[in-house]
Design a protein that fits this description.
Layout (H helix, E strand, L loop, with lengths): L5 E7 L3 H10 L3 E7 L24 H10 L3 H7 L3 E4 L4 E5 L2 E2 L8 E4 L2 H13 L4 E4 L3 E8 L2 E9 L2 E6 L2 E4 L7 H7 L7 E16 L10 E4 L7 E8 L3 E8 L9 H11 L2 H8 L2 E2 L4 E11 L11 E3 L5 E2 L7 H17 L5 H27 L8 H17 L3 H11 L11 H9 L1
Parallel strand pairs: 1-2, 1-11, 2-7, 4-13, 11-18
Antiparallel strand pairs: 3-6, 4-5, 8-9, 9-10, 12-15, 12-16, 12-17, 13-14, 14-15, 17-19
Helix pairs in contact: 1-4, 1-8, 2-8, 8-9, 9-10, 10-11
The protein binds flavin-adenine dinucleotide.
Length: about 425
């Protein structure tokens, strides 16, 4: 067991990023308290995570990190009903309008709903002997002395109380409070990079006829320039399929059954659209809208309070169509673990620098693709235009060349950096193809 850094750490927010932060903090602190305003423990969507209703693909990199932090978790998910699949044999990718060729890669994936995944992680976190959860507790403020954060204020059934701590981690998602807290303590706010994405989702849970989609377990239809309509179909626990339509650049998917089917007729292969038309609906169609992707540049701040860190969506939230968010929360947790090993000195500075390095490839991938979708040429630099032309070519070639499809899926799965697509072997195949 590693040496404990200090007595008490508190994590504010029990989304995926908060759960993973709590996991790594439990190795370094005597006690960890996980604070959450919702009631925890059910594997149904909860108020604090409304996005949990919609498709939540876990990228291969995210799954690997989860398995590292919670050995055996993949097996537990599958035993509980999550759907295992083999990359990219049972993953059907249609990107840039091209259906990718497939071949075995040895990489496994697991498909489940977000509440199911989160509840399984929570179960493992709750087994940590030095961790307590304080759910139904709203974070109302922070405690500070000089340049040091000393705890948080939380309000629950018994009224408001103070929770002193040596370290406070803001894992409260897009609405994270650190910006306001920094201001109230006399610190500057971090620079924000904002990319307009105007994404809208419509999601329907369905029961498909057995074998209706053969061996396919996940089908991803990406949006691209000229086609802002996409879709994700995932086999999930409970013998169900979760079908999410995604519209980019202001395109909103319909929430009525006929409109839903018509969208799939337009973007999905005919067998997929037919299987969905013939399926048994399990409830209503739900919708969501995501206007922007935002990255907060904490690593560029000259001053930051001691005793405070931020993780997950509270640092950077992405266009969800690339499925990166939970895996980024996992990368943040690894950065936290690594930096905690170096002690408390300069922890925030080292941590935010490590997070920035981990975030860069994912941010580059998603914002590059987002800018490609937008009509205004002025928003796109020459570099972005060249890169997107090359990606378009790779996607065409991937329809015939499974090795290019594998290279592409490894980069979008965050297993390899985007530069892997520039390796001579890939460039050669793209040029020859
Ligand atoms: C529509 C949509 C689809 C998505 N699809 C994917 C996908 O396919 N794959 C993927 O990896 N990611 C996806 N994401 C992103 C993913 O949901 C997040 O990146 C991921 O959940 C990590 O977020 P988080 O834990 O940082 O924050 P959140 O999941 O938002 O969790 C924040 C937690 O903090 C709690 N909280 C907030 N304020 C307070 C307070 N004052 N007091 C107490 N508790 C508080 C909330 O209740 C919540 O539990 C999607 C996002 C959206 C919006």
């Amino acid at each position: 067991m590693a040496r404990k850094a200090a007595e008490h750490a508190i994590v504010l927010g029990a989304g995926v990023s908060g759960l993973l932060a709590a996991r790594v903090l439990a190795d370094r602190y005597d006690r960890v308290t996980l604070v959450e305003r919702d009631a925890l423990g059910e594997d149904t969507p909860r108020r604090g995570v409304p996005q949990g209703f919609h498709a939540h693909a876990l990228l291969p990199r995210g799954l690997r990190i989860l398995e590292e932090l919670f050995p055996g978790l993949t097996g537990e998910l599958v035993a509980g009903g999550a759907v295992p699949y083999e990359m990219i044999v049972q993953l059907r990718m249609i990107m840039g309008g091209h259906e990718f060729a497939r071949m075995p890669t040895g990489e496994k994936g697991v498909s489940a709903t977000r509440p199911f995944l989160e509840s399984h992680i929570l179960r493992r976190v709750r087994r940590l002997p030095n961790l307590v959860t304080a759910d139904r507790s709203q974070v109302t403020g922070i405690m500070a002395e000089g340049d040091r954060v000393t705890g948080a204020r939380i309000a629950g059934d018994g009224g408001e109380r103070e929770l002193p701590a040596d370290l406070v981690v803001d894992a409260m998602g897009r609405g994270g409070r650190t910006l306001a807290w920094l201001e109230s303590m006399g610190y500057e706010r971090p620079e924000e990079e904002t990319v307009k994405v105007e994404v809208a989702y419509a999601t329907w849970y369905l029961r498909l006829a057995a074998g209706a989609l053969g061996e396919d377990r996940m089908i991803l239809v990406g949006t691209y320039r000229g086609q802002p309509k996409g879709a994700a179909l995932c086999a999930v626990e409970g013998d169900r399929w979760l079908v999410t339509l995604g519209g980019s650049a202001g395109m909103r998917p319909p929430t009525d059954p006929e409109g839903f089917f018509a969208w799939l007729d337009e973007v999905a292969p005919a067998d997929v659209a037919a299987a969905v038309r013939a399926a048994e609906p399990l409830g209503e169609i739900g919708s969501a809208r995501i206007p922007t992707s935002v990255r907060r540049r904490y690593e560029r701040l000259g001053r930051f309070p001691e005793g405070l860190l931020v993780t997950g969506d509270a640092i950077c939230n992405f266009n969800p169509i690339y499925g990166q968010g939970m895996s980024i929360g996992a990368l943040d947790a690894l950065a936290m673990r690594e930096c905690l090993r170096g002690g408390a000195d300069g922890l925030a500075r080292r941590y935010f620098a490590a997070v920035a390095r981990a975030l860069d490839p994912a941010w580059q991938l998603s914002t590059g693709a987002d800018l490609a979708l937008r009509e205004a040429e002025a928003e796109r630099t020459l570099r972005v235009r060249l890169l997107n032309a090359y990606i378009g070519r790779l996607q065409r070639v991937a329809a015939r060349d499974p090795r290019v499809a594998v290279a592409f899926s490894r980069v979008s799965g965050l297993l390899d950096p985007p530069s892997a697509l520039m390796r001579p072997a890939v460039v050669w195949r793209a040029v020859r193809g």
